[in-house]
Write a structure and sequence with these properties.
By secondary structure, the chain is mostly helical. The protein contains eight helices and no strands. The chain has one domain (about 5-155). The protein has helices at about 5-15, 20-30, 35-40, 55-70, 85-95, 100-110, 115-125, 135-155. Helix 4 packs parallel to helix 5 (about 85-95).
């Protein structure tokens, strides 16, 4: 799986979130984090003070990201996954941004990465389905790069 800290940093950058907004996204995902925890997770990979972001922490953040973009479902508690993979991260980003297949394909294209609708649908299948495919790091990295072009770079113009 792509590094959890890297995913957190990229989402922060893409949507230009400040510390308070990031802390709020964790809160919306039912996790309380301090500013110092957040700063430790956001440090550069080569910083010896970097603290690894656990999967359950990234899952809580992504759940909060979904809640911020789509609204929180009253009376429903979303329990963050203890273990994540690229397929789950991609699914959560798709849900948060309310993307349909064609929009996902377009985001991949922005990063110069062609993916077919069939290839894409395999990432969202049940893992027990014979057509299920694991989303490799390269796919998720390209998706995040495409998101940056669509949501960050386009807003800079």
């Amino acid at each position: 799986m792509v590094d959890s800290n890297d995913i957190l940093r990229k989402i922060r950058y893409i949507f230009n979130y400040g510390d308070d907004q990031m802390i709020e996204l964790f809160r919306l995902g039912d996790m309380t984090v301090s500013r110092s925890q957040l700063c430790d997770w956001l440090k550069r990979d080569d910083d010896p003070l970097l603290k690894p972001l656990l999967h359950i922490e990234l899952a809580a953040f992504l759940n909060g990201f979904i809640a911020s973009k789509r609204g929180k479902i009253e009376g429903k508690i979303i329990i963050p996954e203890k273990s994540l993979n690229n397929n789950i991260v991609l699914r959560k980003l798709k849900i948060a941004l309310n993307l349909v297949d064609e929009e996902l394909i377009e985001i991949f294209k922005l990063a110069g990465f062609d993916v077919s609708k069939h290839e894409l649908s395999a990432f969202f299948r049940n893992p027990s389905h014979k057509q299920f495919r694991f989303c490799k790091d390269q796919f998720l990295r390209n998706f995040l790069r495409g998101m940056q072009i669509k949501y960050r770079d386009a807003s800079v113009d």
